[in-house]
Each structure stands twice: as C-alpha cells, then as structure tokens.
C-alpha cells in the first residue's frame, strides 16, 4: 500500500467522523415529532390556520330570477286577465312563441294584405289568408273586376298594433290585433270617377284582425282567419 492510499483512507475516516458528530447532535431548534392524531383532530374541528392575510371571497353573482308571472306580459296584458291566460296557454305549448315579435310581424302583414287586396294580388293573399278569408277577399276582388273598378290605397301611418285577444284551441293558437292606422283609399270606375273613398282625404281606420297558427306544424307562418272593423 503506497503513501497516497494511506492518506486518502485517513481523510475519508476523518470526514465520516465529523459528519456523524454533526448529524447526531440536537440543537434545540428541531421540529417536534409529527403528531398524526393531533393533525387529524385539528382537521376535524376545521381549525387548521394558514399563515397570511385572510382575504374575503367575493360573493357569488346573483342568479337571474325567473320572470314572475305578474310581470311576464308587462306592457301587453294585465295579470289574471283572459288575454294573459291565453298567452300563458300558448307559450306553455310553444316555448319559442314571442308575442312582441308576433306583433311586429303582424304590422307588416297588415299592410301587405291591405295593399294586396287593393291591387287584386291573389297570389300574395293566398299565402297570407286562411282559405275562408281568402274566398271572401277574392269575391270582393271579382266584384270590382266585374264592375271595372280599381282601388287605390296608400298608407300614411300605422299608429298602433295592440294585442287584444289570445287563446289556444287544441293545437291552434289564435291572436287578435287591433290596428289603428291612417290611410288614403279611393275606388274608381272605368272612367276614373271616384265611387268610394277619397283620393286626398286621410281616413282614420281601426281594424280588428285575428291570426292563427297550428303550433304543432313546422310552418312558422300565421294566417289571417278573421277580420272586423271598429269604424
């Protein structure tokens, strides 16, 4: 065994003895032994305290409250009325039904039907009217044609489209709208003479129309099934 081997062995023994002396001593700053029972008891009592500042959690955002029945048709129908009950019955069977959207569409249909009737446009009327109402309108158009008369109608304004009736009959929803409008209308004979109405006088017109739709059908269109006038 050479001198270098003896030196390395002596150095190794020295280092081992120093480490043992250090690792085997207690300084008084050691952590206490792990007490599993104490930790379990603290967890059960929910008293485990974490260091640091306690931050209050933000309250949960309030969930949207369902629209109370009394406010469901606000601006359209008073709670408890036949109109409100009719709307409830329709929307119960057709959740996509929106009466406000319907009223908007009914305004457009009202103008289209009035003008189509004045112009004798049977094709347009057939798509917008029930078969019974169409027959009535066509009979009036035929009578005008027989007498060689023409009707000129122009809308000045539609001042109001108010929902006044709603009901569900089996699978058929029916909605009644009261239209208040201003229009100019005149019917002329073949010589151009006015036989009905006026070409320059604005008339106040109130019509009460009923539209219907089979809510079990995929066809989303409503058709005019009844007409009346308050004038």
Automatic annotation (TrEMBL):
GO terms for biological process: protein import into mitochondrial matrix. GO terms for cellular component: membrane. The keyword Zinc-finger does not apply. Residues 58-77 are annotated as: Disordered. Keywords: Membrane, Transit peptide. GO terms for molecular function: protein-folding chaperone binding. Its main location: membrane. Pfam families: Tim44. Coiled coil: none annotated. It is found in: Membrane. Residues 83-229 form the Tim44-like domain. It comes from the Bacteria. InterPro entries: NTF2-like_dom_sf, Tim44-like, Tim44-like_dom, UCP031890_Tim44-rel. The keyword Cytoplasm does not apply. PANTHER family: MITOCHONDRIAL IMPORT INNER MEMBRANE TRANSLOCASE SUBUNIT TIM44. Belongs to the Tim44 family. This is Tim44/TimA family putative adaptor protein.
């Amino acid at each position: 065994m050479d001198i270098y081997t003896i030196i390395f062995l002596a150095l190794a023994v020295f280092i081992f003895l120093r480490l043992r002396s250090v690792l085997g001593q207690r300084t008084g700053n050691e952590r206490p032994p792990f007490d599993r029972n104490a930790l379990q008891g603290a967890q059960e009592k929910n008293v485990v305290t974490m260091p640091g500042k306690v931050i209050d959690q933000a309250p949960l955002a309030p969930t949207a409250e369902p629209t109370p029945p009394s406010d469901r048709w606000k601006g359209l129908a008073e709670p408890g009325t036949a109109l409100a009950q009719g709307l409830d019955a329709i929307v119960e069977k057709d959740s996509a039904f929106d009466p406000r959207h319907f009223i908007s569409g009914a305004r457009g249909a009202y103008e289209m039907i009035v003008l189509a009737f004045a112009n004798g446009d049977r094709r347009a009327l057939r798509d917008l009217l029930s078969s019974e109402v169409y027959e009535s309108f066509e009979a009036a158009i035929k009578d005008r044609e027989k007498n060689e008369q023409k009707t000129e109608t122009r809308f000045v304004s539609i001042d109001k489209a108010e929902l006044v009736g709603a009901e569900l009959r089996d699978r058929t929803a029916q909605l009644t709208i009261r239209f208040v409008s201003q229009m100019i209308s005149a019917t002329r004979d073949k010589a151009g003479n006015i036989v009905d109405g006026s070409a320059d006088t604005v008339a106040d017109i109130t019509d009460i129309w009923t539209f219907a739709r089979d809510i079990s059908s995929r066809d989303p269109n409503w058709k005019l099934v009844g007409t009346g006038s308050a004038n």
